[in-house]
Design brief:
This protein has helices at about 20-30, 30-40, 55-60, 115-120, 145-160; strands at about 65, 70, 75-80, 85-90, 90-95, 100-105, 105-110, 115, 120-125, 130-135. A hairpin with a 4-residue loop joins strand 3 and strand 4 (about 85-90). It has five helices and ten strands, in the order αααββββββββαββα. A two-stranded antiparallel sheet has the order 1-2. A two-stranded antiparallel ribbon has the order 3-4. Strands 5-6 form a two-stranded antiparallel sheet.
Length: about 180
């Protein structure tokens, strides 16, 4: 059990005041003395200044991220309101659009939005199948087309090609 008290979670040794001796033994090639120093260090326990106390080691350190399973202090975890889970920074993202934290899997980094906001603010173009931002005021006949495809379709229509998807921009008919 005391072996762990001088090694942090990254595997780095807490040398206390023995770091200069360890460097000197290593530099001189006296690896037997270095081994003895390490054995003595790892065989002792200083309850006043370990990387982690034996009680914390035994009981676990911090809360567990619901996604990756790593343990973090409560300050390093984010509460996800939709699921009630605690997630670490790597497993969650903050959606500025709805001002809430969401699991990373439910976040689109390109659009910087959660999937729910993405459904409200974007659309998939029926022509090119690319995602585009939905404008506030879109006519019913233009709905479902990105601005780039809409412009191409209008240009084709103006050039005389009247084979348009879904009757988009059909010519006006005279009503008698």
């Amino acid at each position: 059990m005391s072996l762990i008290t001088h090694v942090n979670s990254s595997g780095e040794i807490c040398w206390n005041d023995a770091d200069e001796d360890a460097c000197a033994y290593h530099s001189s090639g006296d690896f037997l003395a270095l081994k003895d120093l390490i054995d003595n260090l790892l065989g002792t326990y200083n309850p006043a200044s370990p990387y982690i106390t034996l009680e914390d080691w035994e009981n676990g350190l911090g809360e567990c991220c619901a996604d990756c399973g790593e343990r973090y202090s409560e300050d390093d975890l984010t509460y996800i309101e939709g699921s009630g889970e605690l997630l670490c920074y790597d497993c969650s993202r903050y959606c500025e659009h709805c001002a809430s934290s969401v699991p990373y899997a439910d976040y689109d980094p390109e659009w910087r939005q959660c999937k729910w906001c993405l459904q409200e603010t974007t659309c998939i173009c029926e022509h090119c199948k690319e995602r585009f931002a939905v404008e506030d005021e879109v006519s019913e006949e233009d709905e479902g087309y990105c601005p780039r495809c809409l412009e191409e379709i209008r240009k084709e229509f103006e050039d005389g090609d009247q084979d348009h998807p879904g009757g988009l921009l059909a010519p006006a008919m005279a009503v008698s």
